[in-house]
# Entry
Amino acid sequence: MSARPRIRLPDSVSIGDVIEIKTLMAHPMETGTRRNTDGTLVSRLLLHTFEAKFRGREVFRAALHTGTAANPFISFFMKVPGPGEFEFTWVEDGGARTIERSALKVS
Amino acid sequence: MKSIRNKVCAAALALISALAGTGQAQQSSNDSIARELDTYRSMMKSDPWSNPGMLDVDRGQALWKTPEGPNNVSLEQCDLGLGPGKVDGAFATLPRYFTDADRVMDVEARVLWCMEKLQGFERVKLLTRPHPSAGMPVKDLGAIATFVAYRSNARSFSATFSHPKEKEALALGETLFFRRTGPMDFACSTCHGESGRRIRLQPLPFFSKAEEARKILGEWPAYRVSTAHVMTMQHRIYDCFWQMRLPEVELGSDISIALISYLVKQADGGEIKIPGMKR
Amino acid sequence: MSEGSRTRFVVLAYIAFAGASYAQQMEVTDEARIDAAMHAAFPKASPDWLSRLKGDQTMRACSKSRDALPAEVARAIAARESATIQYPPDGRLIGDWKKGERLAQSGYGLRFTDYPPTRENGGNCYACHQLTNEEVSYGTVGPSLLEYGKIRKFSEAEAKAAYDKIYNSHATFPCSLMPRFGTNGVLTIEQIKDLVALLMSPESPVNRP
# Structure
């Protein structure tokens, strides 16, 4: 059973607030430079892109490489324009996408 | 973007290299190294939410509630010591004696018992390769134990060790802690028997000193950066026996529960803050 | 606070402190009981591993004594352990320090993942000791060995003392934390010579910081 990504949005926000959005994703982030006990290389398998959209528009994007640790924690900041839905996408080598949505409530 | 783990590690190592210095400033060099290691550790722990161990807490919680195993039942009737299904605060009271099993159990041994008795899993299968290799996530039993432990956060270790079998476990644990054996003549106390020591760059808590046990024990289970998985206390002890050049210790054995009992007794009153974050 | 009550306070504080630091010792003294628990806890252990579950006479004495080792027990340990030390047939105790450095770095050997072995056992000296300035990842369970030979003026007597110490530390320091590398078969005589060279050669990085 694999874990779903974790998303942390602040509980109560107002329009104009600068908020921190935190994400945590389970992934081995295999660099392709490690070796098995028999000496063969473990194939590279990375999440190479993280995208965040709010109300359908991109608000943050990150290109991840071999220097990013397994189970990446990524956070970014956004100024709140109003209520809406976040859509977070992690893209893996080979194209597989994990998508998670989270609603932002504004008081 | 914050992705601090690798950056912090590199910065700490650079500082340690600069400070290692010549033989003359030996003690102050060791102190500087200790300070930088502490700085590294504090920075890793600065945002508990960023700890990937939380993903295993989530997984453990889902496993607790989901019907599994040949009997297709969830663990929601599992009695962790405070009554069937009561999870909050249970970890803080362990290890303890359980009448139905007629033995003292830590959280992992108890979860194993419930997986076997309630869900119908085969004990032999659960005990085969129970711990993850590097890069693999913690297995289901460990994830459930991590979830259970997490539900005692902010509480203190408060196992009473009042039952005769609990006292026996304590006595056995303390005796084992000081018992030197194997080709390297190691006991737990060889490494964990004095303050301020480290193996390579890994500081070693002095477990026979309550103050140090209290600081450390509440951080286990912990996420291990070097192996990218949560390590439970039974796994930690298995790993100790590995480097002591002893064979593979069985999960939930009397020996491991006795040692855990001794550590928990030493850590009595210490705060539980799971998952920890380790090298 | 008056003199009398101050004294009382100090005494009570001392008792409270001592009580907290030295909690009542609990022990299982029944060796058979411990042996049974150990055997049950390692069900996958093959027969030739079973001897690892129980310490020998010296280890049992050290385990029992914890901090306080009676003098006559210490003397008996020193005598027993020094009798096990074996020397190279040609009497030359100094090998190759370059090999010694590799041995000091390696913790390989005798763990259950080290079978079948793919290389020689290491001494893992850096786990517990500082040896050179180049290696910053060193432990502090044992004292620093930086400039070991230089401090001891590269004397022959000190080379022998170093050899003895590595082969069996209990010969001179009963209940030393250091493994009995020679007596327990962790390292060979040739390997111990290489470690002596690491400590005692003028060219070794240990002596050129």
Remarks:
- The CA atoms of residues 157 and 163 of chain C lie 10 Å apart.
